[in-house]
Specification:
The protein has 102 residues and is mainly alpha-helical.
Length: 102
């Protein structure tokens, strides 16, 4: 089922649901996570994806699961792929062609 509304980037969720309520700066959180400020800033500004390693760090810091962060990223990425181009629609199902040949 295709989503009509663009999912929220995990960086926005990180900012709105964690950084702002906890009054954490990007500099402080990046130090707590053991990553560079630049790396965290890119995620928070929706310029970079949450990697599995970052998901582990965020889950540890905020007592969430790594799957939360990875699923948010996956939903965002899939929506982007489905909506940036329709070229993938030209791919014909292989199984369908094989079944009709026999």
């Amino acid at each position: 089922m295709k989503l009509t509304r663009k999912p929220t980037h995990p960086g926005t969720i990180l900012k709105e649901d964690y950084l702002l309520p906890l009054k954490l700066s990007i500099t402080t959180l990046s130090a707590l996570l053991g990553v560079s400020r630049k790396t965290l800033s890119k995620i928070i500004n929706n310029k970079s994806s949450v990697s599995p390693n970052m998901a582990l760090r965020l889950s540890r810091a905020f007592n969430t699961s790594p799957n939360l962060w990875l699923n948010l990223q996956k939903k965002y990425d899939l929506w982007e792929a489905e909506n940036e181009s329709n070229s993938w629609l030209s791919v014909k199902p292989i199984l369908s062609d094989i079944l009709h040949m026999s």
